[in-house]
Amino acid sequence: MHKLNENDVTPEHIFFERRKIIQSMGLMGAASLLPGFALATEKQDSRQALDFVKDHNPQSLLLTPENKVIGYNNFYEFGVDKASPAKYASALKTEPWTLRVEGEVEKPMTFDVHQLMQQLPLEERIYRFRCVEAWSMVIPWIGFELNKLLALVQPTNQANYVEFETLYDPDSMPGQKNHFFGGGLIYPYVEGLTMAEAMHPLTLLSVGLYGKTLAPQNGAPIRLVVPWKYGFKNIKSIVKITLKSAQPMTTWHQAAPQEYGFYANVNPEVDHPRWSQASERVIGSGGLLSVKRQPTLMFNGYAEQVAHLYQDLDLRTYF
User: Quick one: which residues bind Mo-molybdopterin (predicted)?
Assistant: First the structure.
């Protein structure tokens, strides 16, 4: 099986992250943290097969190889380098796992995630997945629409936003314990959507990919997938969902509001302060020479389905 190395992708963030690791942690041989994927592929055998309705892939998207999806990740709770999650996330225990839904709801509830997977039938959705650092993947996510879960708790008419929170467990998530290893973020990780975004049928709570349950580094056992937004909005390993009347403060927006807005819609016309978002490199099976940059699509290619959600917003201001 092909192993991803530095020649497969060369986005700008690799330089900044490698320099940050070397300067702040003083690690010997920090370059060795860049992906070899043997560890990730060895651990995938522990993932369980899922029963789901298979997507017919109407857009005929070419899938990113599975070993790269489970081996090249952003999950700062397990380190800022893309290979660190696959290396360290095996310490995360995903059974049992409960998900609390509360706030502006008529029926606050706590769900056992594995029972929830039986209660809400699963389907596969093949989505583009775009990272803010100008790389992208195409992933066959398995899950259920978030709106189906929210219907169970009956949102009140004061529910304008949905806040998500990741597990806080410094003993199994070293990035939450070590300031530098975790990118200097404030934990637990928090993200949010408007109610309209949360209720949109494209918005998934994913419990698997490639026919099996999620690997820990991909956000097991349950994570958010919003395909028209940048990857940092797609919060992993969720333990709590809170419906709110006011817009929540989210982790990356709190850390760097000039770089990471609350909405975080894929928009080629709004650059990150340190690089352009006008083009992207799709992570595929080949090396650098076989993967050409391509123009970034507005709303990551889902403009027809979601642009109406933002018709009254200036997307350069509300980025």
Answer: 73, 76-77, 131, 166, 218, 223, 234-236
The answer to whether the beta carbons of residues 73 and 88 sit under 8 Å apart is no
Q: How far apart are CA 224 and CA 198, in angstroms?
A: 10
**Cα→Cα distances 296→195, 222, 226, Å:** 26, 28, 16
Q: What is the pLDDT of residue 291?
A: 63
For residue 30, pLDDT beyond 60: no
233 labeled binding residue: no
Residue 229 CA to residue 297 CA, distance in Å, equals: 11
Determine whether the annotation assigns residue 41 to a binding site. no
- The answer to the question of whether 17 is labelled as a binding residue is no
Question: Whole-model pTM?
Answer: 0.86
265 is in an annotated binding site: no
Average pLDDT value for residue range 101-115: 98
Binding residue per annotation — 102? no
Question: 139: which strand partners?
Answer: 127
Alpha carbons 83 and 221: distance in angstroms, whole number = 20
3-class SS string, 62-91: CCCCHHHHCCCCCCHHHCCCCCHHHHHHHH
Q: What span, in angstroms and rounded, lies between the C-alpha atoms of 221 and 93?
A: 9
Q: Is the pLDDT score of 14 beyond 60?
A: no
Task: Report pLDDT digits (tens) over 274-310.
Answer: 999 999 998 886 654 456 789 999 999 999 999 999 9
**Is 234 labeled as ligand-binding?**
yes
Spatial distance between the Cα atoms of 161 and 171, rounded to a whole number of angstroms: 31
Cβ atoms 233, 264 nearer than 8 A: yes
Kindly tell me if the per-residue pLDDT of 17 is higher than 70: no
| Predicted confidence (pLDDT) at residue 42 exceeds the cutoff of 60 | no
Tell me if 166 is assigned to a ligand binding site.
yes
